[in-house]
Amino acid sequence: MEVHFLGTSGGVPSPARSLPCTALKRNGRVLLFDCGEGAQRQLMMSPLSMMAVDCIFLSHHHGDHVTGVPGLLQTMSLFSRQRPIRVFGPEGTVTMMERMSSIQDAEPCYPVEVRDLHPGDSLESEDMTILAVGTDHTVPSLGYVLREKPRQGRFDADAARKLGVPEGPLYSDLQNGSSVTVTGRVVRPEDVLGPARRGRSFSYSGDTRPCAAFIEASEGVDLMVHEATFTDDGTDRAAESGHSTARQAAEVCKQAGAGTLVLTHISPRIEDDLVLENEASEVLEARNVVVARDFDSLRIDYSE
Fold first, then answer.
1. Are residues 185 and 220 in the same domain?
2. Is the pLDDT of residue 97 over 80?
3. Which of 65, 130, 158, 239 is the most buried (most CB within 10 A)?
4. Closest to 269 in 3D by CA, of 39, 11, 38, 62
């Protein structure tokens, strides 16, 4: 699993940072979290394939987070995309997308499926779950938490041999969850598989003040992406405008027991990333803190 930071500015772009867009690549498919203006260009400049984007998750409807959607959809259409794409966001996303589509001279040549989500809604596939979490901004807003479902335990070949299972196809049957019969004895997968192993996990805050719901939902995630629009001297401004400081983001990470903290949505007024890193590191001490810049990427590996 890889996380690519395509746009890391907040509010307006700067020469160094594009508007918010974070991509998660997993099993060859890409999920976008927010889609600021110019997202399609950022994708073209990244190692990711634009056509691999499956879903777009919008945190809220402020322009810096959504204005890239029409251009991205149109570019995909010009590239003759056929596969559907799904767009999710807080209440009103369906209406917003209808209004955006009205400014285009042609509908995309592929299906665009749009759905409003509410806090607590969960999207589930065979091997992962994405939870929508209500956050605390100045407009209805969502964060997202992705968790892979547990993987099966490690196969214990010694245990299989002791139970009389010969090497070969029966090993595969057991690993695939099927019981096998050997000399009249039934051997079950749980007889030769270790404990289930946890999957990987990721959370994305969108724009928000420090939020208890996001802390709870993000418990123990491997990587947390949290906005850090301000430094300590902007604490009051952060509270007024529905944002967080780097120190507050670190407190959220610490309370959630998350692993790596990545700070994004950086105000163009902040000229030195080290200030953000230092303020967050004072809270998290030796734990990992990264101030994201455009085109940075991080891997999320299995913990076991």
1. no
2. yes
3. 65
4. 11
